[in-house]
Amino acid sequence: MSTVLKVFKLPDLGEGLTESEIVSWKVAVGETVKLNQIIAEVETAKAVVELPSPYSGVVTELHEQPGTVVEVGNPIVSFDVPGEAGTGDEDPGSPAAADTEAGPAKREPTLVGYGAAVDTGKRPTRKSRTRAVASTAMTTTAEPPVAPVASAPASVETAPAQEAGERPRCTPPVRKFARDLGVDLEQITGTGPYGLITRDDVTAARGAEAGETVPASPSGAADPLAGSTAAGGPRTLGGAPREVRTPIKGMRKHTAQAMVDSAFTAPHATEFLTVDVTPMMELLERLRADRAYRDVKLTPLTIAAKAVCVALERQPTLNSRWDADAQEIVQLNYVNLGIAAATPRGLMVPNIKDAQSLDFRSLAGSLRDLAATAKEGKTAPEALRGGTFSITNIGVFGIDGGTPILNPGEAGILALGQVREQPWGHRGEVVLRQVTTLSLSFDHRLVDGEQGSRFLSDVGTIMADPGMLITML
User: Fold this and answer.
1) Cβ-based burial of 120 (10 A; exposed 0-12, middle 13-18, buried ≥19)
2) Which residues are catalytic?
3) Residue range 352-370, pLDDT digits in tens
4) What is the CATH topology of the domain spanning 3-130?
5) What are the helix (H) ranges across 315-402?
6) Element (H, E) at 306
7) How confident is the model at residue 103, as a pLDDT?
8) pLDDT tens-digit map of 280-320
9) Predicted confidence band at 232 (pLDDT cuts at 50, 70, 90)?
10) 22-25: which pairs have CB atoms within 8 A and are 24 or more residues apart?
11) Whose CA is closest to 180, among 199, 193, 158?
12) What angle do CA 157, 158, 159 make, to 5 degrees?
């Protein structure tokens, strides 16, 4: 059966995003893949997205390497797909298209599929750009060529010499660490088992590149108690190079721009309310012992999420949107509840769709799933769109309160502080009670002080005494 060369171009992933970074390939050249099999992970400004294969066939070429930023519409992978040659589906300029003009060129099968496509001297135009690692690294002194790290000790078993053109052996986290520091892995000899490049190898290479010596403890880590470096200079934080520059990209770039847009577009106002939540904490303990909730994680955030949904129905201006183009205020009668999540990729705010329609147990389960997905870096772009109100749980970091910045396009955000024991007036006496502080920021174009205050009071009332919920429904 004849085959046709198909070129898969980076698709439009929505939200007007024009580029994505190749995070990792899940397939290799010569591998046979099935339709909809996951072939790659790409990182947009908002999420890491898995790309499914649009074809069933054999991978013939990976046009881009991990770490490369690719513009939408540029080729990323080619396949040999079973079909009739000359059907018009070939990518213009591809070897397969050339075959239909100058006669088919024979390609011999191998153990892993068909060999590489016949080289006609033509290649798809590559408009993508690769971040040059040299441009992202900065030192305080002129940088000499990177000095290779010493080879592994004789007691460490190493692999055969790495062949020319072979990708340096290291784990994905170490590869990303090297990329962030601007270190060329090709210049490093790994000291790990079987020649594996370790994090310490990258750190040492970066220090050599900067002309600095990083002291190491017997375990290989920098000694945090050392007063100075081996060269006699002052000790740096953690024994790291004096300066490290990280490219502003992906989620960090998007978050920074969104916060600037929000801070200088919506006039923020913030109010605070400190609440005795002892009854709420006692309720959570009882529910955790209840068989119906044993498989659900229950926290103060769970109660706060439910309280917000109820309070938004009573004070709907907190769930509205300012449409500057149409010069309209858009009232939203559904709650897509955003939960700020600190992830390895940075801050993101996925939201629970139609949270107002969920019962307490379902809402708790949605919060659990949202957090797990965010930590794994698997949040889908759809979960990051269309939020109407957000909660940020700063209490998990031991913080009492703050002035949260609105998620762009939303009218309000609630910061939930830590619940801690402190002296509190209760029934005419000063006793130790469980207390938390709620911080509400709102868009003063949409929300008046009275409406913001009533909303915050409703949330505080429910958290102080969850039984009061029945008086608000």
Assistant:
1) middle
2) 444
3) 999 999 999 999 999 999 9
4) OB fold (Dihydrolipoamide Acetyltransferase, E2P) (2.40.50)
5) 360-375
6) helix 300-314
7) 40
8) 999 999 999 999 888 889 999 999 999 999 999 999 999 99
9) low
10) 22/64, 22/65, 22/66, 22/67, 22/68, 22/70, 22/76, 23/48, 23/66, 24/66, 24/172, 25/62, 25/66
11) 199
12) 135
Residue that has been written with the tokens 């004070």 in this structure: 315
CATH of 250-471, one of 3.30.390.30, 1.10.3720.10, 3.40.920.10, 3.30.559.10: 3.30.559.10
DSSP 299: -
What span, in angstroms and rounded, lies between the C-alpha atoms of 396 and 253? Answer: 25
Angle at the Cα of 289 from the Cα atoms of 284 and 291, rounded to 5 degrees: 120
Task: Give the number of other Cβ atoms within 10 Å of residue 359's Cβ.
Answer: 9
CB-based burial label for 215 (10 Å; 0-12, 13-18, 19+): middle
The tokens 């698709």 sit on which residue?
Answer: 11
Edge to edge, the sheet with strand 48-52 lists 48-52, 38-43, 19-25, 68-71, 129-130
Whether the CB-CB separation of 356 and 291 falls below 8 Å is answered with no
Chain-centroid distance of CA 351 in Å reads 15
Q: Directed axis angle between helix 278-288 and helix 300-314, to 10°?
A: 120
pLDDT of 345 higher than 60:
yes
One-letter amino acid at 286 equals R
Domains in the chain: boundaries: 3-130, 132-246, 250-471
Please, what sign has the CA dihedral across residues 352, 358, 360, 364? negative
Place of tokens 């892995």: 185
